[in-house]
Structure formats: structure tokens, C-alpha cells
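Let's do one together. I've listed all components of the complex below, 749 residues spread over two lines.
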Amino acid sequence: MARTPRYAREVAVVAFAQSDHRRRTDELSEVEMVMPVLHQVLARTGLKAGEIGFTCSGSSDYLAGRAFSFTMTLDGVGAWPPISESHVEMDGAWALYEAWVKIQTGEADTALVYAYGKSSPGPVRDVLTRQLDPYYLAPLWPDSVALAALQAQALIDAGETDEPALAAIGARSRASARTGNPHAQLTGAVPQGDYQVRPLRTGDCPPIGDGAAAVVLAAGDTARRLCERPAWITGIDHRIEAHALGLRDLTDSPSTRIAAEHAGLFEAPVDTAELHAPFSSQEVVLRKALGLDEGVAVNRSGGALAANPVMAAGLIRIGEAAARIHRRESDRAVAHATSGPCLQQNLVAVLEGDRA
Amino acid sequence: MSKAATSKECVAVVGVGQTKHVAARHDVSIAGLVREAAVRALADAELTWADVDAVVIGKAPDFFEGVMMPELYLADALGAVGKPMLRVHTAGSVGGSTALVAANLVAARVHRTVLTLAFEKQSESNAMWGLSLPVPFQQPLLAGAGGFFAPHVRAYMRRTGAPDTVGSLVAYKDRRNALKNPYAHLHEHDITLEKVQASPMLWDPIRYSETCPSSDGACAMVLTDRAGAARSPRPPAWVHGGAMRSEPTLFAGKDFVSPQAGKDCAADVYRQAGITDPRREIDAVEMYVPFSWYEPMWLENLGFAEEGEGWKLTEAGVTELDGDLPVNPSGGVLSTNPIGASGMIRFAEAALQVRGRAGEHQIADARRALGHAYGGGAQFFAMWLVGAEPPTS
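Okay, and this is what the predicted structure of the assembly comes out as:
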């Protein structure tokens, strides 16, 4: 392999599974939604829960509407005898990061990572306002679409995009989902529709829905044994920015760029990108920060504009990029996850397959 | 490639900071509270924000303050802008888990110096009802954590035949220890054993004085590698072992009195640290005792006493500040409980003991100390063992 080792151990995504993402799943509890996905991802490796070295999940109590919601989904793992396990109150992409660190210490050779979110039980636009500064911003209830619209307008004002270009991003994403992603919630053209919050129209916004995803990580020869073509994580890093929108240039994403540098993204070209851009305008920002040109296949899965299970959508980007490497549709891919209003926090992972 | 198992970097605690824990910090915002602990930890390490490579923060359920994923808003206050920031949540064990996640970043050589912090500002809401789950998740009978844990305490008493005064002995000890800890929440200068035993019954057999308070507080630590420890102006505490274990909340055969996950977690930590006789080889223990009876229960679960014998250590005074196995010299969770931070305070107090920096509640010549945290339905465990000397292996 031509890669320069950046870390102590080689770690790869060896399996990925996700649920069908749907507008609502009233008939399923969270554990019932997660469990089939866990079974699928483990079946792809032939591993049993008890053979996994470390387990880590990502979810939010605020979506579930109850404290300690992750304690219930742990039932879906089958944590008996007791397992080495942790949880982040973040998108599952950061759970994957914690698991990757654990493998880097040498304390585990394999890890099960999962994430889930049910947005359907509550008004998710309102729920997400609760993650804003509780003293100065949250009392105003500016919702996630309104904040994204500020960002979109800033991009238009800066001459970086316009409304037809944004509409084209949504249309391209859903067209990709139709051919490339049977799990997507929106798999085909949707009307661009009315303004949700000017300048963002319905087609610029992600669908609201429920879903879950899981990934298995493995180190070195274990990865080679479990997967015909492992998706090696040759770089992974994440960075956060200031919370207050007034302190940030919303047309740029310096945290994404720093993370990409630390992950080694710019050392060689990528053929594939899976970007966690819930709003069409955010893809514009991310393409710029990551330096992606027209030759890169962006969001062939449809991205978050085709399915956006909150707390899982970032992990799904890593899973989708890895799956393309597994299927030999990509040799070097970048996957991105975001959290917080207007791309406040960003994670970048570079994945590579062995070239025969 | 897979040389990693032998090449793990040593991890040292070079800075510890806490707020003075109180019922309500109306004078500061959440950001002000966490920053106070972080600034004190950096001052202890004689480092600045620029020396910190990453921030790992933990807290218990977001409902306790009513802020979803508050780390997003706290990025500025914790100097994390432009840096990696992780948010851990593993229920009551979270303060311990957060420290372990931070330690792993150093052990894996991903970062050199990491700031880790845990907090709770319980005065922002009502934690008891925050923990009382709505129908249909739970039958509407349990109020708060005490309602959940009291039956397990009764099971312990029935199983071991422990006299019903043991719980009050623990509370009396921990509340007196807290008088020697300037950061402890409860400073009950007029406490007597009779007062503990006469306090109102909350969840039989747990009395008011045998349960933890609701606190506002934060705790922070600076973790670094060997090179960082060599530059430390004060003695570091070295991490000799750390582990997490989880099991489901409820299942047929679950032993709520002495959960298997707790036993497995302790065994893993002792194996890493080369401990074969914890009672003799460990000089001080900071264990998570939110209700007095959990001291004898955890003494057994952690291997300090044979099954059924833990209460005898408590009754004989072994766990007193001047006993041969001091437990919770800081006053413990019974005297201070900012929930999300409580586990990290255990880990940090263990570090203070082996650094010789525990002040009035210092155990003389403490060389090895155990920090312990648990959470959920006695199902999530996090522990570390710290020593005054660097690990030899």
C-alpha cells in the first residue's frame, strides 16, 4: 500500500447497515427500530455481539423525549455477559470516532457503532432550538430551517450560489437516491415547493423521519478476515466552531477545512464524497471547504436531502462511503458529518480501499 | 501494525479543578460554571488554553438543565473553538466515562494534552422528576432514583443480615469527611449519628440524611502524556488501569445487589494495574455512593470484602478516614452530587490523593487510589486506578 501510516494501527469500516428511513415509525420503539440493523451489520461480518471488543452509540434524549433513552436500545445489542460500552450524546459519527480511538489504544480489535433517531414524535424544528445558547438564543426559538436560511441568504448575497443552483442540488440528491439507495425516504423528484423560510424552499430542506444505522470497525488482519475489501480509515478528525452565529462567517466552514487537513484529505484526490448537508445550501459551503471539484461523485446515496434521521445521518455518510469502497465503486472517499446550527461542528473521515 | 497493545502511551493527571459545590449557583451561567472548574484545572497544571489539544465533556441527561447537547453552546467557554470536542453521556457513570474517553485520546497518541470536564447545574430544573420517566416508558410509581434503588438495598439487607444501622454509619462518616473538603456541598457542622438516624424516611430504608443532595458543580482535569507529566510543576497522578462495563437494565437473572458488570469492570482495572489483593494494595477509594447502603454493597462488588461481609468493614470503622481502607475521604456523593460531575469528582479525588494534594482529607502516603462511578439501573460502570508512580509495564 502507498499510504503513509498516520496512526498506530490500521482501522477499517468492514460492514455497514441501515434501516429504511421513513416519515414515521409509530409501530416501533427505538430498540425495535435499532435491533434489525444491529443483526444485519453483525451478520455481514459473521461476528456475534459477545465477540465485539467495544460498542459505542450516538443518540439524543431530546428526540426520544425521555432521559437515558440509550439504556433501552442497549437491549438491542444483547449486553450479556457485560460488554465494554460507551455512548455519546452526538451523531453516531462521533461514536465511531470514540470507537476508533479505543481501537487505536490496542484495547480492542473490533467495535460495533450504532446510532438512531426518531424525529417523528415531536416537532423537530422546535426541538432543535433547545440546543441553542439557553440565555440569549433559545428563548427566541429560531428554528433549524430559519437558521439555515440565514446561511443560505449569506451565500446568495456573497454571490456563491443562487436559488436555481440550490434547487438543482436537491433534485440531483433525490435523483441519486432513486437509482442508488433503496433505504432513502425520498427517492425521486419532489416539487421545489414554497418557501419554508426564504430563500429555502421545501426542496432545499431535508425530509423529517426516523431511522437507524450501524457500522463494524476492525483493525489490521482482523479487518482483512472480516471483509473482502476493507474501507481503511486513513484519516479522521473533527473540529468545532464558536456557537454564536454572529461570530462566524456562515459562507465558510473553517472547522471542516481544519478537520480535513488533519485527516490528510488534501494529500491525494478523492473520487467520492458523502457530505452531511441537511440543507442544499450547506453542500455549497462544504464543497468549498473540502475543495471538491466537479469530478467527485457527491452524495450518490442522496445524502441528508433524501433521508435525514437526526443523530444517525452523519454515521450513515461514513457507512455509505465505506460501502462504495467495499463494492469497488470507490478507491478513495471522503465522508463528513455535522452537528449544531449552520455546520457548527464537523467531522471528516478519509476512507481508502486497497488497490489490487 | 498491531503492536499497539504494548505501545500505549502513559497517561498522567497534572491538573484538577472543582467549583465549590452548592445547591444553586445563581451567580453564574452554565458557561460560567464550567469555565470556573476548567480555569482551576489549568492553573493547577500551570498550562494555558493554548496547551489544550482537545476537550472531552460529560454530563447526565440534558433534561437536567433543559439544554439539548449543551456542549455546542459551551465550545467558546471551554476554549474549544478550532479544536476537537466530544460529549459523552453514559448516565450516572458519565463523569468517569468522560475521563476514560479523554485518557484514551492520550493513550492512543491522538492528542498530547486533553482537558476533560463534567458538570451538572441541577438548580436549572428538577432532577427527581427529570429522572421519573413518563408513561409508557415506566409505570407511574417510581419517583426519582431513590425509588428505583431502595428495593435493591432491602434485598442486600435481607441477603446479608446486615443490621439496619449500617446505612446511618456511612452517612455520618461521609458527612463528617465533607467538613474537611472545602469544595463539598454539604457542610453539616452539627451532624450527629442520632440526627442521621432520626431524619425522615424517604424510600424505606433510605432516610433523608442517607441520600445525596442536588448540587450545582463542575469538575475538570488536565490529562497529558509522559512528556507533559515531566514538565508538570506538581506531582502527577498516573493512570494504571481504566475500564467501562455495561449490562442491560432489566433481565431475568440480573443481580441488582452486586451487578456482574461492576465485578467485571473492577477485575479488568485490577488486571491492568497488577492488583491482586485490592483490600491491601489500594490506599484510598472514591466510590459512587448516592445512597448510604451502597458503600457496603460496592465494597463487595469491587472485591474489597467477601460476599455478605461488606457491612462488617463499615461497622468496624475500616472505611473511616483513619481506617485501613478509607472510602470517600472527600465526603463522596452523599455530600456533593452535581450528577454528571459526580463520577469525575470520584476520579479526580482519587488523583488528588495520590498526588498528595487532597488537603485536610489527605490519606497519609496514599500511593494507589481507585475512582469508581456507576449509573443507569446499576448497569453502567466506569473505574480507574491511579498511582503516585508511573506504570512499570
